[in-house]
Amino acid sequence: MWLLWFSLLHAGTAAPLRGAWREAARGDTPAQILNAFGHGALKAFNPSMLQWFPRDELGAWVVLQPGPPSADEERVLSIYPAPMGEVTLFEGKSPPRTLALDDFTAPLHGHGRLAFRLSVDREQTAPILLKFEPSSTVSAPERFELQSMDDYLQQDASWLSFAAACFAVMVAMALMASCFAVMLRDVTFAWYTGYMLCYVLVQSIQTGFLFHPLGASWLAGSELLVGASATALSVSFAALFASRFCDLSRYTPFLRIPVIALGVAMPLIVVLRCSQIPALMDMAKVLVNPVLILGAVLLLCTALMAAFRGSRPAWFFLLGWTPLLILTAMTSAQVTGALPKLDWLNDASIAMGAFEAVVLSLGLADRALTMRRDRDSVRVLADRDPLTNLLNRRAWTEAANRMLADAIEEGQPIALLFMDMDHFKALNDHQGHAAGDRALVSVADILSSELRPSDLLGRYGGEEFVAMLHGVHQEQAMQVATRLCRRVHRLDIAVDQRELLLSVSIGLAMRSLGDTLETLVERADQAMYYVKLNGRNHAHTFERRAEMSGSHHKPHSAHEQSR
Hints:
Keywords: Membrane, Transmembrane, Transmembrane helix. By secondary structure, this protein is of the alpha+beta class.
C-alpha cells in the first residue's frame, strides 16, 4: 500500500523545466531578472531536484523555463515541499500573486505544496519568474513541477488521501492510548498520547495539511511559533514516555535522570520562546536545536542499552523511533544541499509517523497485557495458600459470601463443611513439620479431587479446611462428608509408631433462614467439635441438642488442645 501511494505521489508527469536563480538585491526588478536570465547570468539548477534558496535579508529570485508543451491545456506550477515563507509569481502584465501555506484566498490550494495556476493566455514557453520572499525560518530545499491541470489534480488527490490516512492512523492510536490511560490509570499512555498528537501537529503544519484541507485559519500567522513549540513538546513527551515505557528505573537507572531532565527542559524552552521577551526568545532559539539533537541521541542510546539489558518494550520503542530519527537526520542534511534526489523524504516522514504510531501502540498493548498478567499473578499469590494452593481464609471468605448471596437470591440450599485433621499436632511432634506439610498437601489434593469444581474449598487456618457446597441437600452433603473422611483415612499417613493414622473430623451445617457466613461457619465448627469429642474420623450435622449446646460453651483453646 505504501509503495503504491509513493508511486502515485512521485510519478513523473511533469513537463520539462530549466531553472536558474540568484539572491535578491536592492533595486531588483522582474525585467532585470528576466534579462539576466536571458544572458545566462543566473545560477543554473535542475528544477526536478531539490534546491535550497536563501531567505534571509531580501530573499531569492527563481526563473523557470518551460519546454514546449505536448498539448495546449491549462497548466499548474507546484512547489514541493511547501515552503514556510511566501512565494510571489510574476506573470507579464498580470499583477504579481503571492502564496503561502496559511493563505486562504487563493483559488487553487495545493495540499502538501504551493500551487500556482498559470494564465491560459500566456505564452507556453515564456519564462516563469518567482521570488522567494525573506523569512526568518530555516528554509528547506524545494523542487518544481509544471503539470497539466488533470495530472495535478490526480496527484493532489493521491497525496491528500495518503496524508489523511497517515494522520488518521496517528490520531486514532493517540485517542486509543488516552482511553487506556484513563481506564488503566497509567500515565505512560498519556505521555504517548501527548507525543503522538504533537508529532501530528508538527507534520500537519509543515505540510500545510492543517490549513488545507483542515482550514485552521485561526492559526494563520502563528504557525511558526506553534510548530516550534510542538516540536519541543514532542521531544519532552517522548522522553517521559520512554522513561516509563522502557522501564529505565530498572534497566538503566543512571540514564533515567538525564532523560527526565530532557523531558523537563523542553517545556522550559517553549516557555522562553513564548515569553515575548527578546533576550529570552533569542536564548530559546539558540538552545532548541542543540537540545533536540542531544535529546534524540540520548533517547536512542538509552533505549538501546535498556533493550540489550532485557527491556522488551525498549525494542518496540527502537523499532518505531529509529526509522523516524534517521529520516529526520536525512531531511536535515538536505538543508545543506545533500541528497537532492530524495524528494520523497517529507512524505516518508508522514508515513513513518503512522508506522511508529502502530508499532508503539502494539508495544503499549503488550505492556497492558503484561500488566494484566502480572496483576493476575499477584492476585493469585494473594488469594492462594502457598502450601496447598487452596484459597486462603480471606479469599475463601470473600468468595463464600458471594456464593451465599447468590444462593439466597436463587433459593438454593447451601451446605458448609468444616474439616479439621485429627492427631495433626502429634504428627508434627513425632515426624517434624516437613511431614506435617506433606500431609496437608496430600489432604488438600484429596479434598480437591473429591469435591466438584463448583464447590468452594479453602484452607481456613492451620490444619482446618472449609468447603461450601452449592445446591446440595443435607443427605447429599453428609454422603460427601463421609466419603471425604474415608478417602483421607485411606491415605495411610502414620502419626506415630502405634499405627495411629491421620484422619479428619467434619462438621456439617445447612443454611437456614437468617444465616450469615459467620453463623454458618460457627455452627459447622460446633458440629466438628462434637465429632472431636466423640471418636473423630467421621462427619456430624449440626443439631441443637443438649450435648451440642454444651460443647458450644467450651473454649476454642480446649478445642485446639483436643486435636
